[in-house]
Design brief:
With 171 residues, this protein is an alpha+beta fold. 32% of the residues lie in helices and 10% in strands. The chain contains six helices and four strands. A four-stranded mixed beta sheet has the order 1-4-3-2. Strand 2 and strand 3 form a beta hairpin. The longest helix is centred in the N-terminal third of the chain and has 18 residues.
Length: 171
């Protein structure tokens, strides 16, 4: 009697072998069926990544922005929402509830939010007018700079960095 004949002679061993083969088959050859409607498209990772999205998200190009060219990206009329912190431009469109026109941070949309983020102030006075030079932030103390760096880390982990902010006459 061979090893295979002996090991498959008990029903439990046969069942375990069949179960192992079934799971190996589902891992090696996952289902590739496509959702038939938007309701069937998964919203989270529950059954694996064997589905295709309805459409590819738009491509975001890394660009150079000035305060004037950044200003139109304020989310009004349902458009993209960008904001800058310390020269880094973030696409915060997915956070429309926070950064859109009606959001609590809506005044930062399309603007350089560095000073406001550093000082934890969301007042309009924290914003430099778009026709003036960028705020150099030289009067910030160490804790405010650290606070601004914390916001940059937060935004870097949550949103796409899509550009850099330079002076109006530099681009």
């Amino acid at each position: 009697m061979s090893f295979i004949d002996g090991s498959l002679s008990t029903p439990i061993n046969t069942a375990l072998l069949l179960l192992t083969l079934y799971y190996a088959q589902t891992i090696i050859f996952p289902s590739t069926s496509r959702p038939r409607s938007a309701a069937e498209v998964p919203k989270s990772y529950e059954k694996g990544y064997s589905w295709m999205p309805a459409n590819h998200p738009p491509t975001v190009l890394f660009q150079t922005y000035t305060p004037r060219t950044l200003e139109p990206f304020n989310g009004k009329d349902g458009g993209r929402i960008l904001l800058a912190i310390d020269g880094i431009v973030f696409d915060v469109t997915t956070g429309r509830g926070f950064y859109g026109p009606e959001g609590m941070y809506g005044n930062f949309a399309g603007r350089d939010a560095s000073r406001g983020m550093a000082k934890q102030s969301f007042d309009v006075e924290m914003l430099t007018p778009v026709d003036q030079p960028l705020d150099k932030l030289q009067d910030l103390d160490a804790s405010e700079i650290e606070n601004m760096r914390g916001w940059i880390d937060h935004f870097s982990n949550k949103y796409i960095s899509c550009g850099k902010l330079v002076e109006n006459d530099a681009a």
